[in-house]
Amino acid sequence: MSIIRRPWGDSLLSDFFAPEDRFFSGDSRVAVNVKETDKNYEVEVAAPGFKKEDFSIEVNNGVLTISGEKKTENKKEDGRYTHREFGYTSFTRSFNLPAGTSHSDVQAKYDGGILKLSIAKKEETSKARKTISIG
User: Fold this and answer.
1) Model-level pTM?
2) Domain ranges across the chain
3) Which of 70, 119, 129, 135 is the most buried (most CB within 10 A)?
C-alpha cells in the first residue's frame, strides 16, 4: 500500500475545503473575455443554453455584476412509469469598472450563446485653455 499525499492536507475533509473550490469551479464559472478599444470596453460571457430572460446585469458603485440562472424540469410519464429530472445552473461574475467609464452607457446583447456587453468610455474633457468671464 502506498501513501498518497494530498496537496491540501492530510484529512479527507480537507478536500471539501480545498482552495479555489475545485469541486464546483467547472459548473459555476463561465468563461469571460474582456477587451479594451478606443471608445469602450467589451465583455463577452460564454453562456450557451441560456435565454435573455435568464440574465441579470447591474452596475452598482462602480462594480459590474453579471449573473445568470437557469432552471429546467423534464417530466416523462409512460403508464405507471414516471421519470423526472431537475436541473439548476447559475453563475455570478463581478468586475470593478475602471475610472473613465460611463456607468450609464452599458449595452448588452445575447446571441449564439455569447452575452456581449459594451461599456462606453467617458469622453475626455478638453484640456484647451478657456477664459471664463465674471458676470
Assistant:
1) 0.64
2) 27-121
3) 119
